[in-house]
Amino acid sequence: AQTVTQSQPEMSVQEAETVTLSCTYDTSESDYYLFWYKQPPSRQMILVIRQEAYKQQNATENRFSVNFQKAAKSFSLKISDSQLGDAAMYFCAYTDSWGKLQFGAGTQVVVTP
Amino acid sequence: GAGVSQSPRYKVAKRGQDVALRCDPISGHVSLFWYQQALGQGPEFLTYFQNEAQLDKSGLPSDRFFAERPEGSVSTLKIQRTQQEDSAVYLCASSLMDSPNTGELFFGEGSRLTVL
Predict the structure, then answer these.
(1) Which residue from A74, B57, B86, B101 puts its CA 20 to 30 A from B11's CA?
(2) Is the pLDDT of residue B100 over 70?
(3) Enclosing H/E stretch for A84
């Protein structure tokens, strides 16, 4: 069975600074997808970034980037130049069967002015 | 509509009551998913539809949970004889494609169920 672990319940960052959220996962599959989702208080999950396991290059979306270490089964998210609007719960997710995502427990990101 | 719409946004039920939660996916989206999110936890997969066919219901926690999508668009998640442990946010998501290569999941804002 696959599991996704987020070991940081909460991370605090000052505006304009950088924060890194950690995620590890366990799988015996070689082909899979990893995601980071943002969930603000409105509860709507918003896709931040995705990574295909077969791609060696780390995904980047504007201020968001990942460090994907396939051998270590690690998938961290870096938020650069943090903004107040980045404050939310962030979930790491895994799938090898489309749509059937497995989520971690989440990391609450707090952004201070 | 522009996004995935769920109703009701909030539902309070007495233990033993039946509830029905509705999901309106984005028009034309083939795939539809239901997830259950307990307080302070990540969402957990319940069931998956491709058009009107329920292809995976392995995440439904008991036979009190039932989902349908009879015409391949709107879906209803029904919970019979609700229990306190059913209290959670129920999230619906839809996807245009049915493969991981191009199909991004779009989530609704969820229905928060509280069972007293």
Answers:
(1) B57
(2) no
(3) none
pLDDT per position as a tens digit, B51-91:
999 999 999 999 999 999 999 999 999 999 999 999 999 99
Select the residue of A42, A93, A101 nearest B109 (Cβ to Cβ): A42
**Distance (Å, whole) CA B108 – CA A28:** 31
Residue A62 corresponds to which tokens in the numbers above? 């504007």
Q: How far is CA A64 from CA A60, A84, A86, B98, in A?
A: 6, 15, 10, 26
The pLDDT, as a whole number, for residue A62 is 95
Burial class (CB in 10 A: 0-12, 13-18, 19+), B63: exposed
CB A13 within 8 A of CB A82: yes
Q: Is the dihedral of CA B20, B18, B40, A76 positive or negative?
A: negative
The C-alpha atoms of residue B36 and residue A14 are separated, in whole angstroms, by 32
List phi, psi (to 5°) of B85.
-70, -10
Residue A33 one-letter amino acid:
Y
> What's chain B's Rg over C-alpha atoms?
13
B interface mutation test: which of A8, A10, A21, A43 has the most B CBs within 10 A?
Answer: A43
Amino acid letter for position B112: R
Q: In what order do the strands lie in the sheet with B5-7?
A: B5-7, B19-24, B75-79, B65-68
